[in-house]
User: What shape does this take?
Amino acid sequence: MIDATFGNLLLTLPGASFPQWHRQNQRLAYVSTDGRLMRYDLSNNSIAQIASAVPNGYTSLDWHIGEGRNEFVYSNVYGLWKYDNNTATHTQLTFNRHIVVNPNGNYIDAYPRWSPSGNSILFERNYLNNQIGLATIRHDGGRFRPLNRVNNTQNYIRTDGNMDW
Assistant: This one.
C-alpha cells in the first residue's frame, strides 16, 4: 500500500489477495497466502485474523460502512457471509449447494457486492450445469432474488467480481 500524497510505502503484504481498502475506517481486508481472512488497521498498524482458512479459500470481499453499520461481505465454498466489524460476528447469508459441500448440490455463490444503500448484495451464482446468473439478497439474508440465468457452456461469461450496481 502506498501513500498517494507523498508516495511513501506504507505496507507490504506479500501474496495477499482480494484486498479491499476502506479509507473511512483506515482498514484493509484481504486473504492471506495461507488462506485466512485478515484485516489490517492502518490507524494502529495492527493485523487481525477475521476467519480461519477454509477449503478452496475465499473469492472476494466488499466493504459497507454507513447507517451505524461497519460490515463487509465475503464468499467461500460454503456461501456468502457478512462480517460485522463492530461486533466481530459472522452471519451466513446463503448456503451453497456445491458438490464440495453438498453431494446433491448444483450451484455456488461468489463475488458479492454491496448496493450503494447497503440494503442489498449483488452476487454471481455459478451453476454446475454450465449456467451462470446474477442475484441479489437483502443485507440480513432475507429475500433472495435471481436476476438472470444464461447458458455458459463455453465458459465465456464470468464476472470474477467485476460488476457494480
